Backbone:
């Protein structure tokens, strides 16, 4: 009978792959576990093994073709006896099924193609391990079922086996053969008490956003300005106002003015459509450190608000974020962001862009240092600024021009007030 072997779901959200190489010819005899094809997905290059013994009649696609999950990869002529056999999990045979070419670890899940639902349900539980780990375990006689994996989805990594060998009693020959973690450049786990901390949902969201941010081809522009006038003006306002006013409302107002002149910075980028949306409203996300992690409340339509209004709304949003009473709508709709890491220390830094935004400004520690004014070295109050930009949308020259203009507004408070 003819067994239709369909391209299996290799996991990790992969729906299709490109066939790089077909390793057998029609008429060749194949055995279960033989590699039929090498398929490149957006994450790995996977070796696809045959689940059955038989004769390859033909492939369902050619080299360089794109094949979708569920499409027939190969037609295999199998015996009646083979047809009655249950397809055993490839992971437990020790076969290499997912050779990675690049960072990360993955394995090809068990294929249940050709089996009834009942047969599929009765299969033994899978042991997830990387191909390198499987070969390593086979070479050293390690039972994978006794090893706890630390990779994605609990997959067993080679480093898990090395630590397992160091932590358990093997025979003298096995201990000698087994490489030490230090020999492989792997840092052993520290001695003493440890604590495992599970990510909260908020921490998971932060991690996901930062992973997305890390994929952005970003560049950084850094500069500083002397804000003596702004510092003096803020001191005057503190004496006149019934509520504390910080530097940040001035930063936000200057930012709203500057993006009117350089609107590409106040934009969002759709990766799928490769489209940029430039926004007329300046909705500034501001990074706020809370006990649970970083939150980014959004102050909307900053271009239409006074310094006093910005200050009051900013303080309200910060309190709501720290007390976990903030509304979901107050965390959405940002068009550009700022982060004030200088309040915790640090002069310059690399702020992480919050996609789909294309820019973020980081403010360093405001401090006094020697500056030159009118040919004289005098003390001056310095504001350092680092700006990260998505290079797919923003080029270096306009970004530098924008930052220069922004700092001019803050360095000359009268200029900023005229522009309001």
Residues:
């Amino acid at each position: 009978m003819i067994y239709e072997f369909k391209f299996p779901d290799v996991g990790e959200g992969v729906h299709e792959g490109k066939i790089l190489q077909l390793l057998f010819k029609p008429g060749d005899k194949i055995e279960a576990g033989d590699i039929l094809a090498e398929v490149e997905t957006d994450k790995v290059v996977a070796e696809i093994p045959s689940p059955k013994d038989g004769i390859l009649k033909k492939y369902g696609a050619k080299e360089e073709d794109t094949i979708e999950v569920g499409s027939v990869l190969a037609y295999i002529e199998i015996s009646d006896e083979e047809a009655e056999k249950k397809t055993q999990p490839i992971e437990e045979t020790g076969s290499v099924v997912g050779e990675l070419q690049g960072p990360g670890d993955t394995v090809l899940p068990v294929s249940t193609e050709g089996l009834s639902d009942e047969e599929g349900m009765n299969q033994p539980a899978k042991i997830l391990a990387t191909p390198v780990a499987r070969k390593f375990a086979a070479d050293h006689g390690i039972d994978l079922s006794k090893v706890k994996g630390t990779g994605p989805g609990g997959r067993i990594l080679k480093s898990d086996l090395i630590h397992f060998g160091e932590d358990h009693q093997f025979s003298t020959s096995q201990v000698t053969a087994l490489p030490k973690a230090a020999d492989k450049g792997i840092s052993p786990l520290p001695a003493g008490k440890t604590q495992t901390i599970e990510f909260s949902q908020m921490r998971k969201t932060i991690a996901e956003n930062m992973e997305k941010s890390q994929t952005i081809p970003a560049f950084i522009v850094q500069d500083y300005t002397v804000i003596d006038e702004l510092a003096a003006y803020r001191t005057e306002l503190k004496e006149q106002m019934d509520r504390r006013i910080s530097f940040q409302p001035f930063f936000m107002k200057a930012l709203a003015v500057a993006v009117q002149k350089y609107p590409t910075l106040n934009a969002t980028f759709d990766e799928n459509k490769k489209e940029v949306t430039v926004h007329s409203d300046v909705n500034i996300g501001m990074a706020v450190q809370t006990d649970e992690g970083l939150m980014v409340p959004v102050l909307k339509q900053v271009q239409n608000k006074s310094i006093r209004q910005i200050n009051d709304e900013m303080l309200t949003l910060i309190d709501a974020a720290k007390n976990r009473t903030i509304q979901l709508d107050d965390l959405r709709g940002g068009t550009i962001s700022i982060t004030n890491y200088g309040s915790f220390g640090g002069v310059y830094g690399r702020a992480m862009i919050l996609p789909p935004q294309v820019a973020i400004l980081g403010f360093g520690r405001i401090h006094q240092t020697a500056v030159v004014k009118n040919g004289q070295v005098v003390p001056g109050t310095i504001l350092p600024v680092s700006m990260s930009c998505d290079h797919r949308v923003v080029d270096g020259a306009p970004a530098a021009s924008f930052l220069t203009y922004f700092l001019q507004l803050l360095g000359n408070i009268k200029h900023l007030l005229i522009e309001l």
Notes: The chain is about 30% helix and 25% strand.
